[in-house]
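Troubleshooting log. The previous run stalled partway through. Resubmitting the same two chains, unchanged.
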Amino acid sequence: MAALAEEQTEVAVKLEAEGPPTLLPPQAGDAAGEGGGGTTNNGPNGGGGNAAAASSAGGDGGTPKPSVAVPAVAPAGAAPVPAAAPEAGAPHDRQTLLAVLQFLRQSNLREAEEALRREARLLEEAAAGCSAPGEADGAGAEAASALLSRVTASAPGPAAPEPPGTGASGAAAAAVSGSATCPAAPGKVGSVAVEDQPDVSAVLSAYNQQGDPTMYEEYYSGLKHFIECSLDCHRAELSQLFYPLFVHMYLELVYNQHENEAKSFFEKFHGDQECYYQDDLRVLSSLTKKEHMKGNETMLDFRTSKFVLRISRDSYQLLKRHLQEKQNNQIWNIVQEHLYIDIFDGMPRSKQQIDAMVGSLAGEAKREANKSKVFFGLLKEPEIEVPLDDEDEEGENEEGKPKKKKPKKDNIGSKSKKQDPNAPPQNRIPLPELKDSDKLDKIMNMKETTKRVRLGPDCLPSICFYTFLNAYQGLTAVDVTDDSSLIAGGFADSTVRVWSVTPKKLRSVKQAADLSLIDKESDDVLERIMDEKTASELKILYGHSGPVYGASFSPDRNYLLSSSEDGTVRLWSLQTFTCLVGYKGHNYPVWDTQFSPYGYYFVSGGHDRVARLWATDHYQPLRIFAGHLADVNCTRFHPNSNYVATGSADRTVRLWDVLNGNCVRIFTGHKGPIHSLTFSPNGRFLATGATDGRVLLWDIGHGLMVGELKGHTDTVCSLRFSRDGEILASGSMDNTVRLWDAVKAFEDLETDDFTTATGHITLPENSQELLLGTYMTKSTPVVHLHFTRRNLVLAAGAYSPQ
Amino acid sequence: MAEEKKLKLSNTVLPSESMKVVAESMGIAQIQEETCQLLTDEVSYRIKEIAQDALKFMHMGKRQKLTTSDIDYALKLKNVEPLYGFHAQEFIPFRFASGGGRELYFYEEKEVDLSDIINTPLPRVPLDVCLKAHWLSIEGCQPAIPENPPPAPKEQQKAEATEPLKSAKPGQEEDGPLKSKGQGAAPADGKGKEKKAPPLLEGGPFRLKSRSIHELSVEQQLYYKEITEACVGSCEAKRAEALQSIATDPGLYQMLPRFSTFISEGVRVNVVQNNLALLIYLMRMVKALMDNPTLYLEKYVHELIPAVMTCIVSRQLCLRPDVDNHWALRDFAARLVAQICKHFSTTTNNIQSRITKTFTKSWVDEKTPWTTRYGSIAGLAELGHDVIKTLILPRLQQEGERIRSVLDGPVLSNIDRIGADHVQSLLLKHCAPVLAKLRPPPDNQDAYRAEFGSLGPLLCSHVVKARAQAALQAQQVNRTTLTITQPRPTLTLSQAPQPGPRTPGLLKVPGSIALPVQTLVSARAAAPPQPSPPPTKFIVMSSSSSASSTQQVLSLSTSAPGSGSTTTSPVTTTVPSVQPIVKLVSTATAAPPSTASSGPGSVQKYIVVSLPPTGDGKGGPTSHPSPVPPQSSAPSPLGGSALCGGKQEAGDSPPPAPGTPKANGSQPPVSGSPQPAP
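Second attempt completed without errors. Output:
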């Protein structure tokens, strides 16, 4: 034990020595001006503002307080049907308002509530963004301020954490964010247990007003009739209304305890819904009693977040006119209260265009959600002089092709010197300094690069498959180091196993007593500190107490991260093969974790619906990315380390800014939980795979879906671009590896102004043309894919006999 | 879209009776109906909730099956204590029973005998996880190695052969960008279910399947050369290896047309030259191709059948008909034809009826020489009892006369004599069992003579022998079934372990449950190209109280033998139980098999399960229940005679071709005798 402690301190010292300037607290965001949270940078600001962040991030401080999770937007009548797109500040102004309104209602202050509501609507119509909160405060009771501050805490970026370097206070350096694009804040931040739910009755209160339960079916079929009889061009758009209306009407019936009516309503109409909502419908169908609604996450998602629909102005007018004519208040109320209708001018969209984008738990992303600028370019590579040129030459000569390499190398050098216009400033995120070993590795990388195979449709890569035998269906995660020398596997039996796939065996550092005997001046001291007796091909890391769902090597191959069902992320040293740190904070299963491409930072995401950004030398997260409505299944760093992408069971992909914790992109279109993500090497594109077997391609800069690859018949578990981005490889539970022509897929993008402005995309049906190859395995799901530096594909999976 | 997929969601709830039962089990006697209903709703809802969470764990665990641990984790999410004690790695095998209008699912718990557990050797420690690399694809082409799935699954080959219209669908997808290197992508494409098949058949211009050129890679050409040379070469060891490769390698689909042509050409040439050995080698190749589980030969049957038929009915197959054992080749080839018929005869191609017609025609012809006559009869006889009954029996008298005229008449030529002799024994061998079934017991020499002419007396004695044989077996069958019908786990014995991974539970020895699976899996992964020899199983029952105290060995199932030359097959080496697993059925103490006949007075039944490394099927009495020793090449002296009842081939010493008799020796029980397998 003593030895272990010593080793740990050693490593800790090393970490200090690396001494990267830590990520600073988020800057005062563009929109984070008002509210109690403030944007001060001066240490713990103690106010209610970051109470939420603090408590939710307090991983080791026990369970988060239930109150944290009260985003509780009960828009009792503040119709969010803006005539024009709301201004930047509007969303959380309204949110503040709504919170106050809700509080008033809770406190039975009817008159005040009415007054405020009237006021609010006026305000909104006037679109006077900034003055609203003040008045709201004035109108509300003093007691509202506490609530107000809670709500603003979940508004974008106001929670100012202290500089983490001090590490003195327990307050977390965390930024709760995401609400800018999602006015209804995350359903929960720390916790999902039943008792932690936000005041359910408050959430549900909007369902109190009710019509005649027997009329619901009539209302619904009336609307159905209207929509089906409308013109073709409007029908597709208006059909989007079916699902949210169906859900909300059903929930209203259930809430008001009309069980039988609810049941028959469900049975009558559930068959009309689009097939991709099947999973949610299944949850709904089991929900038959008011008591069940407490603690049902799916239900809460519906209530707390507005379902977003994108409808053209014409179609919307048509609908409005119809509902007013029919005096169909029930439906009108639902439309006003529970739906967010994003109206655009122009041609109504076609059925196909709509189908491409819908499917997520809360409808489509709003248009303004994807408007902010994203620096998707790559960082400039540090210039490294290549001193080993002579050696190279010899090596090359031996292989018999002497002079080819030099100009190539110059190319690479010049490429890295150019500053990408889309790249973030070099020091936007503080990155660790390069060590000598990193430089050596970079040089190795360059050398390998010169030997890289140029891939293309006519030159497909070879695939080497690593099969895990005797895994008894227990393999849950795999990672391969960038230089393809090590493979780590996470297993359901809580172990992490590390294999060396090169002849070089894995050795650990000698014990402290033996280390002191070593001559520290000798040239091969790095070799001498290794203990030959421990050499083996496989090292097993014990420490977790649940299945290991995520594993990631650090870029320098000194560390390994693993995330597990037990709620922790562990950092392992690959020098000593011991656990260094257990990062607690998620409290619930952590589904994925990944190191930043520059090391030091890592991201994790789990069942608690948030992704967290950590630094290896901080035991608490630096950022908390909250906004997903269901589990965060996978997390990936952008190649420039400034952004993090998360894929979730709510069928959306979000891109988060590491700097300020904002959600800068929301991608909807998948019809099932997302299980794999990958960025293209140039940072411009993102590929995502889901349980629906489809791979979707996204343009990050424009925030658009740019491609759809159909072919897999089961969950796509792994995705990877080739080193130069020409080929996309996808591996799936259907036991196949497929290769896609990425160049062609991104080639003819429609990025004209109209498409960019409206986000209406028409995807070409060219999956079959893009598919370059399909390779069946022998009942081995493909869990991981990796391109070596020379563009050989390594695939991994566990043989699972049928 | 919504219309085409009418999802059926029904809200199933537990029956409220269950609540009552649970309440009663907890000591609450009276429970109101209303309460039950409420409880039912609540419990159903919670169960569904947990199941949905558990599914999440299954997905994240990258599995297709929900396990008990998933449920545990889901419970943990809800802060509920997990259920302890249900940690099955495998899917819980619920059994289903219904009766009296009630349906019941239950978990079958087997009664185990403690002494079993004590006496079984400890199970091996489960194998540790290990990593193995192979090439899934090399520059876009999937190599046909055992680690990869076969390039064209047998189902697809079959579909292509039998339903060309439908199979045009998977082929269609290849002609996209993959045309150049289509073979790698072809198999998986066929799997895609959502491919739009109908438009192809319904509308649009009808597209012909594009012609594809199957080029063999250099490796394949080398392989082909090596294999064909080894198959017809002089080195028997090499030949065995080559045949084994043909019988097991998964990647031969591309080379099938070449092999088929090689065989048919080879037969054509060698029949003319009367090269018996080569003909035998070629037939063994056919046999190996037939045995390959990844090949579907339908498309090549048109080349193979004439070749095989030639080897059956050709007038002369060897240079010295009086000495060489060409009869064995005819038998072997006849069996092959029967096998082909069984596999590929359909109502559309009528293979069997066409073959039958050919045989009959050549047999009926008066001028047919004895060799051809023998082949025709053998070919017909192998086709089954019905064929014997309808085609051979009516001609017995006529044939008997002809045989008698040769055997008893003036010596015309020695060759004719031998031929007639062979035909006679062949007829006796095949007809006796059929007659034994057809005719009522009292076997009267005269009646037989009246009906079958000169062959009558001989037939009669053979039938009597066959009857005795059948009775003996029937007795065994009865006794076996008696044992089996008892609700003992011995029932599961009768299943033959497949050479692939399988679920445990077939062997009832509890300790060994995990064992065969691992070993099979690992062996398969480690050295898959080697064939796992078909296991033969014996149930040996000794009842020492019976007068004779003989132990009978009953061969329950004899799979078709592989090429029995491999002694180091993976399965047998890894399974530690080369010694038989002894299952004691009665209550007496278990004893090792060598002392099986001990214990006077106490009734002991042993069921000896052994996996002998070779597939020699043996029937008939043996005096010792020890496992069959791995003597692969020597055919059992008792085996054939006991079952077939006759001095079958007694005079013929094995001809120079060493492989043929072996293959013959291991074959006959399948079709020749009534199978006692329950």
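Takeaways: The CA atoms of residues 249 and 596 of chain B lie 42 Å apart. Strands of chain B lie at 94-99, 102-107, 130-137, 537-542, 551-557, 581-584, 606-609.
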